[in-house]
Each structure stands twice: as C-alpha cells, then as structure tokens.
Write a structure and sequence with these properties.
Blueprint lengths: L3 E6 L8 H10 L9 E7 L19 H10 L6 E7 L5
Parallel strand pairs: 1-2, 2-3
C-alpha cells in the first residue's frame, strides 16, 4: 500500500485547493494508494509569512483553525489533512 502525501506551506497560494485539485485528482488515482491520501500543511506562524486566506476571505489564526477549515472542505474519509506547527510557539 502506498501512502500519497501532498505537502504545502500554509502560505502557498494553492493550499486551499490542494486536497481536491492535486491530492485527490492526481495522486490518489494510483491504484496502490487505494484512493487514500494526506495533505500535510506546514505552519510557520508569526515567524513566517501569513497563511493564505481561505476562499471565504478569512485567514486562519492558528494551526488548529487551519486544520479545521481544511477538514471541512471534504467529506471523503479517504482524504485527511494534517497541519504541522514548526513556528516554535507554545
């Protein structure tokens, strides 16, 4: 079994479309993945650039907020999002 992972920075212009546009549309098509995939988003926080605004115009203020918004984008149990906080903030 392959585990396909798409990695994006929180400030990537296509972070909000990566789960459906790249991960699901391109990578989970691999028969060895059985349709499963992970979107891994790297959060840099105040030390990095601002995260890309959600299509509704809001900008996530925390890794948890970004994760919640990403997970709300899909009801497909084969796809999941993970946000890793590398900002060093506590």
């Amino acid at each position: 079994l392959k585990c396909v992972v798409e990695v994006k920075l929180a400030h990537s212009p296509d972070v909000w479309t990566a789960m459906s546009g790249q991960l699901d549309h391109l990578y989970t098509r691999d028969p060895d993945s059985s349709g499963y995939g992970i979107l891994l988003v790297v959060w840099h926080g105040a030390q990095g650039r601002q995260p890309t605004a959600h299509p509704d115009g809001t900008r996530p203020a925390s890794p948890a907020a970004m994760l919640s918004a990403l997970k709300a984008q899909t009801q497909d149990a084969r796809l999941t999002a993970v946000v890793i906080d590398v900002s060093g903030a506590r």
